[in-house]
């Protein structure tokens, strides 16, 4: 049996989450989807927060440094999106709108009436559609490093810098060296790690590759067939790393202009694409100032 450092870290994280009062649940939805969700239910009087991870991650690997700060104030719902972690579907649907519908069905099955949604990157796409389609469910929204106003050409500079033909080559790399390059581009001032750690991570997290490629092919936001982006009525907090190379800061300003006066933008210095890992204390502080 192969020893995996990434597997060991995941196992330790699971133990930590359980010690913090979170429960791991698999929930069958009416549309042929099974969703895995971490849940911390404190009381019926506590508000609820839905934390939506980005592409290439899952709930457990994304929000480790948020569960303590947010768990003191909220009932927490931390799902794995479809084809990430333990979530799967028999449906042929693949868009981020489908992911949003799955989250709506998940919350319905858990009898959750109202949430603050927090979405990172691809999870921000999902959170945006959930908030737009179900404003009675999502009463506030936090968008972290998510290029919701992107156009079909928004990735051109990134692809050119990496020598890649398609965003799938970046998010679903074929070899460990491309994977390492993508990680170093994602995290600002990424510390050195030996190559075997990157190999281990690819092996541990690289499943369902074909399905994930279909998810990328089916993204509506920023596609050639996208309709004009709808407006939102909720208050929205936008949080961005100043040094984000995946979705550059201009995307944050475009999103703030699109949402209008109900949007507040916070820019975190010396931070790349993943504030939840790179600058967790500042991210938590800004979210709590907005939410509590």
From TrEMBL:
AB hydrolase-1 domain location: 50-280
SUPFAM superfamilies: alpha/beta-Hydrolases
Molecular function terms from GO: catalytic activity
Segment forming the signal sequence: none
Domain of life according to the entry: Eukaryota
Protein name (record): AB hydrolase-1 domain-containing protein
Species assigned in the record: Taxus chinensis
